[in-house]
């Protein structure tokens, strides 16, 4: 009898940005929310089980849904308590994920607007398929 194998492709239809900031998440969100189109709110943290069943590692997560442009924004801290969520992206303090109606979104203009905000030292788009496939499970 022939064995069947289910192959599932990761949904890579999103944009990923890496942010470097010396601000804590709450202060960074205050500045990001100064952009007229954004209004981030805290959502359930991203919990990762540890080898010790009595402890859990969690990374702060924030979300904003832009109904007008059919876009979802997620901001996840990449560094918490001296730990890094994605070792491949350890140079970034935060990861910003944009998904949905990307045809209504201009990443270059968005990056320029964010770079003008206080507290964002560096921001860049990440396009590596290997990294994007690792990130896809967050959203």
Dominant shape: globular
**How are the strands ordered across the major sheet?**
2-3-4-7-1-8
What's the rounded overall pLDDT mean?
83
H/E series? EHEEEEEEHEH
Which CATH-level-2 architecture?
2-Layer Sandwich
- Helical residue percent? 10-25%
Assign the CATH topology.
Answer: TATA-Binding Protein
Write down the Rg: 16 Å
Gap between N and C termini: 37 Å
The stretches of 5 or more residues where confidence is low (pLDDT under 50) are none
Major sheet attributes: 6 strands, antiparallel
Secondary-structure content class? alpha+beta
Number of DSSP helical runs: 3
* DSSP E strands, number: 8
* Fraction of residues in β-strands: 35-45%
Can you summarize this structure?
Helices cover 17% and strands 38% of the residues.
Describe the overall structure.
The strands form 2 sheets. Strands 2-3-4-7-1-8 form a 6-stranded antiparallel β-sheet. Strands 5-6 form a two-stranded antiparallel ribbon. The protein has helices at 25-32, 107-115, 129-135; strands spanning 14-21, 41-49, 56-66, 71-77, 79-80, 83-84, 94-100, 120-126. The protein contains 3 helices and 8 strands. The radius of gyration is 16 Å and the shape is globular. Strand 5 and strand 6 (83-84) form a beta hairpin. Helices cover 17% and strands 38% of the residues. It has one domain: TATA-Binding Protein (2-Layer Sandwich). The protein is an alpha+beta fold and 139 residues long.
């Amino acid at each position: 009898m022939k064995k069947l194998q289910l192959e599932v492709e990761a949904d890579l239809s999103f944009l990923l940005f890496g942010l470097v900031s010396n601000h804590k998440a709450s202060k960074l969100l205050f500045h990001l929310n100064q952009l007229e189109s954004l209004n981030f709110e805290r959502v359930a943290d991203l919990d990762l089980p540890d080898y010790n069943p009595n402890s859990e590692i969690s990374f702060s997560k924030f979300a904003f849904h832009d109904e007008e442009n059919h876009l979802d924004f997620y901001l996840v801290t990449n560094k918490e308590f001296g730990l890094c969520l994605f070792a491949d992206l350890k140079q970034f303090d935060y990861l910003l994920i944009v998904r949905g109606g990307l045809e209504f979104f201009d990443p270059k203009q968005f990056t320029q607007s964010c770079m003008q905000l206080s507290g964002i030292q560096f921001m860049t788009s990440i396009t590596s398929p290997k990294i994007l496939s690792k990130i896809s499970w967050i959203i």
